Amino acid sequence: MIQGQHRFTRMDNVWFGTPVAEAVAQESARRGAERVFIVGSKSLYENTDEIARVEQALGNRHAGTFVGIPSHSPRDAVIACAKAAEAAGADLLVTFGGGSVTDATKVVQICLKHKVFTVEGLDDYHVKVRTDGNNTAPKFDGPDVRQISVPTTLSGGEFNPLGGCTDHRTKVKQSYTHPDLVPVSVILDPAPTVHTPEWLWLSTGLRAVDHCVEGLCSQYLNPYAEGALLHGLRQLSQGLPAVKADPGNLEARQQCLMGAWMSMTGNIPKGISHAVGHILGGTCDVPHGYTSCVMLPAALEWNVSVNADRQAVVAEAMGRPGVPASEVLADFIAGLGLPRTLGDVGVTPDQYDLIARNTMFDRWTHMNPRKVHGEADILEVLKLAE
């Protein structure tokens, strides 16, 4: 008999189909927020009026706007944002942009609560992972100033209480977790996503596909999560090519947003694709979505000896029953015009040893379906991604 536990997050609601400015204004008023601080994508702020419309809709509730969070949410940018939010007297944070903006603001919530305004101050709050897979999550009080998230990419991090932040001193991406780090509300509006560069939309969509696939192939999967992950995978495998064919197709974009939401159901532990992906991002500066494009087929190939039955479910959900899942995903990624190899994203063999060493400190390494015994196994997976 299957045993386990499902823990619901402390998110209150998800909006979909309502324009961003209207939804943010209504949600902020409902929460009684008087000092709403926006953390936005720099390109969205400088090249569109999307954030300006939110500022206008908030009226005198708008306390300030911060832009300029780089990829992988480096600590120094998080601290700069936290200082600006503190100075503005923020009582609610609104993120409008991609996964790095969302993740950074999760950590900003910790900074505001615990008055952490130096890079070194975050040392006490991130999850510590050992090479044997054991990890320690520090205990601390949750934030008073919470977050509303408006995602413009598809990584799905807004649906969990885990934030990633890169220690730029060591180039390692570290995790921060507390139940109250999850946004209290998420607003899914496809209209602003037309400004998201195609490569970023599609590649983060592959990140959501990776969530579905590694979740469906996990030994920790349960029937509740399986239903959502299967449908999420179907939504994404249909929606992403449709957006590629017609970038103005808002129905397909909404389909992708809903698929990304479903990809996060159950918070099922992931595996080696996610683990190596974290390191490729923090250590090698590979864009977040590209890491899944490169690593997912390789991870499936390396794991097939232990979960071929689960991989068959993936292939069927993507409309190609009987074909190896690694081949299905490789073809799907190539069809979207996305990179397929480590070389395609600028990673060279001389970096493999460092990647393997750092990957042993990622928690998902030790929850992979096929046991990872050490750095030599990671090197095998990297070779498959060449």
- Please tell me the CATH architecture of the largest domain by its name: Up-down Bundle
CATH topology name of the largest domain: Dehydroquinate synthase-like, alpha domain
Rounded mean pLDDT is: 95
* Overall number of strands: 10
Describe this structure in words.
With 386 residues, this protein is of the alpha/beta class. The protein folds into 2 domains: 13-191, Rossmann fold, CATH 3.40.50; 204-384, Dehydroquinate synthase-like, alpha domain (Up-down Bundle), CATH 1.20.1090. The chain has 13 helices and 10 strands. It has helices at residues 20-30, 42-47, 50-58, 75-87, 99-114, 198-216, 223-245, 250-263, 272-284, 288-317, 325-335, 352-359, 375-384, and strands at 13-16, 36-40, 62-67, 92-97, 128-129, 135-136, 147-151, 162-167, 172-177, 185-188. It has a 6-stranded parallel sheet with strand order 1-10-7-4-2-3, with helices on both faces. The protein has a two-stranded antiparallel sheet with strand order 5-6. A two-stranded antiparallel ribbon has the order 8-9. Helix 9 (272-284) packs across helix 12 and helix 10 (288-317) crosses helix 11 (325-335). It is globular.
List keywords for this structure.
2 domains, 6-stranded parallel beta sheet, alpha/beta, Rossmann fold, Dehydroquinate synthase-like, alpha domain, single chain, two-stranded antiparallel sheet
List the helices and strands and how they pair.
Elements: E1 13-16, H1 20-30, E2 36-40, H2 42-47, H3 50-58, E3 62-67, H4 75-87, E4 92-97, H5 99-114, E5 128-129, E6 135-136, E7 147-151, E8 162-167, E9 172-177, E10 185-188, H6 198-216, H7 223-245, H8 250-263, H9 272-284, H10 288-317, H11 325-335, H12 352-359, H13 375-384
Parallel strand pairs: 1-10, 2-3, 2-4, 4-7, 7-10
Antiparallel strand pairs: 5-6, 8-9
Helix pairs in contact: 1-3, 4-5, 6-7, 6-8, 6-10, 7-8, 9-10, 9-12, 10-11, 10-13, 12-13
